[in-house]
Amino acid sequence: MRRIIELMGTAAGPFRPQWSRTVRMTIVGALLNGAALIVLLPFVVALLNQDNQRAGVLLAVLAALLVLESFARRGELGFAYDYFGDVMQDMRLRIGEQLRKIPAEELARHRSGGVTTVLNQDVTTAMMSTSTVASSFVRLVVIPIGFIAALVVIDWRLIFGALIGAAITAFALVKQNSVIGSSQRVVGAADAETANRIVEYVQGLPVLKAAGQIGERSERLVDAMANQGKALRASIDEVTFSLTGAAVGANLAVAGVVAVGASLVLGAQLTPVSAAAVVVAAAGLAEPIARAASLTAVFEAAEAAMERIDEVLQIKPLSVPDQQASITGHDVEFENLTFSYRGSDVPALSEIDLKLRAGSLTAFVGPSGGGKTTMTRMIMRFADPQTGRVLIGGTDIRDVEERELMRQIAVVFQDVHLFDATILENVAMANPAASEQEVLDALELANCGDLIARLPNGVHTRVGEIGNQLSGGERQRVAIARALLKDAPIVLLDEPTSALDTESEVMVQEAIDRLVKDKTVVVIAHRLSTVVAADQIVVLEEGHITEVGDHESLLVAGGRYAAMWQAQTRARGWTLAK
Ligand code: ADP
Ligand code: MG
After folding, report:
1. Which class would CATH give 2-313?
2. Alpha-carbon span 537 to 554, nearest angstrom
3. Is the pLDDT of residue 234 over 80?
4. What is the whole-number distance in angstroms between the Cα of residue 312 and the centre of ligand 2?
5. pLDDT tens-digit profile of 124-134?
6. What is residue 77's DSSP assignment?
7. Measured distance CA(66)–CA(76) in Å, rounded
8. Does residue 5 surpass a pLDDT of 70?
9. Which of 191, 361, 444, 530 could be cross-linked to 521 through a Cys-Cys bond (beta carbons 3.0 to 4.6 Å apart)?
10. Residue 442 · residue 488 · CB < 8 Å
11. Residue 149 — very low, low, confident or very high, per pLDDT cuts 50/70/90?
């Protein structure tokens, strides 16, 4: 209960009084139930003594107690019925808020499947326990204590009959707590892994289909699912074992009390009537204990879910100092920057010193894995470098607010994400203040005219309706329109590869040329034309800058770039970056 409240943070405030009410109602309900149990004893005695009048009064009292109890139960369930949805929604919004703030590197690490599991399943599982926490406490603690009190009143020696069974039940419950805790974590991790694999598989489906590998490459997903099934079976086995233990123990306790009662009756130390009453009460005790035992599994699952939620909530957002700087110039400078991705000991970038003059065009070239994409990520503060820094207009980007930084930068990457909104809205999001005419102009400049003419509702066509009909080049042009509309002073471009057909390549190139005019541009260059025209070419290999210069000077230097250039022009290849 305390953990849940902690997890809810400030949102706990409005729910706290509701919760207290739930707990109070549960205890009242249990007390009424216990009172009914206590009344049951003299009622049975009265019946056996054929004292009908007394039995009638007690029956009326019993009925009244049970009616009151059912009201208390309604109050107890009130939280689940009235506030459950609110609590879960609050929790989800809080996690969503957090996802918005955490560094992009962390977001990428918690791949989409994992985040989905946390947001959906884990929140439900964690919050589910709020509705059962009170009642299981009562079943496991209050009812047994009431029963023991009743035994003491009738004959304290009866308690000895219950000892062995109670010990077994207690042992089973304790064992269950430790075993289920760990197995629930294994199951949770397996669930998250499967979710990741499903997302991965579905996203990769078109590629697999095209490669004719639809059957073969699902291995990882099948493995994940097999693993998930195994974890679940193991956890069910463990639960079954300890649940059986708890139930057997509870029944043994009842049998023990009955046995002791019987021997006391035989020794004429207890009236048969009292013994009969004890049997009736004991029979009513075993069931709630056995049921409560199964509830502890809910708590273990909740605990594991809370840990995963907590893990996301604990991620530190990138720091921003109280004194926020603003960005005034638009040159970009890397100063002795070294960066390793989380969990990797090989730096993706080592001791990078580089200056991009304002308004210049810099091309990054080099082999796959050289660090080109990571360089562009550093400018966007995807994560903070371990040493060194990135300056824009002389200002350390760690000193500016994210919003201020993002205002300076427009990106066009290869994997263009279009939202399920109209084409117009997809572009307008880059600058919500822009008029419709400005959006249309940006689309025109990005060479989207023919594309829009082809769509059933023009710019008002939803991407969802036509998603699959957009080619890579067309998506890229929509992304360029976005960047044009944003009109940011720094432009980061991952050029389309030569996979584009010639016609759309020309159209994309034209659009890019309009986009980069008068901007500080970084382009991960695949096309020779871009590289040749660049003010500065940077060769990146294994995280190091190995060469810097313009096309002519690098050819004269006769190094790595010259070799790449020769190899590719000879082979008529058109890519300098992989
Ligand atoms: P390029 O764009 O030149 O192909 P990248 O910048 O993508 O190179 O990668 C540089 C290095 O960083 C590579 O060794 C790559 O494996 C590693 N890397 C890239 N992205 C990640 C990531 N998200 N997590 C861990 N390592 C990464
Ligand atoms: Mg790359």
Report:
1. mainly alpha
2. 8
3. yes
4. 27
5. 888 777 767 66
6. H
7. 15
8. yes
9. 361
10. no
11. confident
Write down the pLDDT at residue 549. Answer: 95
Q: In 366-437, where do the E strands start and end?
A: 387-392, 395-396, 409-412
Helices (H), 138-157: 143-155
**Which residue in 395, 350, 352 sits closest to 490, CA to CA?**
395
Count of alpha carbons within 13 Å of 307, Cβ hemisphere only?
A: 12
- Give the whole-angstrom CA distance, residue 436 versus residue 538: 39
Q: d(Cα 550, Cα 531) in Å, to the nearest integer? A: 9
- Which helix or strand (DSSP H or E) is residue 538 part of? strand 536-541
Quick one: tokens of 404? 């201020």
Tell me the average pLDDT across 139-166: 79
CATH 3.40.50.300 domain span(s) along the chain? 324-408+490-496+519-578, 410-487
The answer, yes or no, to whether any atom of ligand 1 lies below 6 A from the CB of 344, is yes
For ligand 1, whether the C-beta of 137 sits within 6 Å is: no
DSSP state, residue 459:
G
Mutate which of 364, 373, 576 to test ligand 1's pocket (most atoms within 8 Å of Cβ)?
A: 373
Under the banding of pLDDT at 50, 70 and 90, the label for residue 441 is very high
Interval between CA 515 and ligand 2 midpoint (Å): 21
* Whole-number Å distance between alpha carbons of 268 and 291: 36
Residue 175: burial class (beta carbons within 10 Å; 0-12, 13-18, 19+): middle
The ligand that comes nearest to the alpha carbon of residue 372 is 1
Do residues 368 and 544 lie in contact, with contact meaning Cβ atoms separated by under 8 Å?
A: no
Place of tokens 């506030």: 83
Confidence of residue 542 (pLDDT cuts 50, 70, 90): very high
Give CA–CA dist 408/339, Å, rounded: 22
Give the pLDDT confidence of 278-316 residue by residue, as tens digits: 776 777 677 667 666 667 777 777 888 888 888 888 888
For the domain bounded by 324-408+490-496+519-578, which CATH number is listed? 3.40.50.300
d(CA 247, ligand 1 centre) in Å:
55
What separation in Å is there between the alpha carbon of 263 and the centre of ligand 1? 78
pTM reported for the whole predicted model: 0.72
Q: Where in the chain is the domain with CATH 1.20.1560.10?
A: 2-313
3-state secondary structure 203-216: HHHHHHHHCCCCCH
Q: What is the pLDDT of residue 486?
A: 93
Rounded CA-CA distance 91/471 in Å is: 39
State how far the Cα of 152 lies from the Cα of 140, in Å rounded to an integer: 19
For ligand 1, atom 15, the nearest C-alpha belongs to 369
Residues making up the chain, counted from first to last:
578
Residue type, 471: S
The Cα–Cα gap between 509 and 493 comes to 12
What is d(CA 2, CA 488) in angstroms, rounded to the nearest whole number? 48
CA 160 to chain centre: 50
What tens digit of pLDDT does each residue of 247-290 get? Answer: 888 888 888 888 888 888 888 888 877 777 777 677 767 766 76
Residue whose pair of structure tokens reads 């607010």 in the numeric block: 401
Alpha-carbon span 375 to 382, nearest angstrom: 10
In 172-268 the beta strands, taken as DSSP E runs, fall at none
Assigned CATH topology for domain 410-487: Rossmann fold (3.40.50)
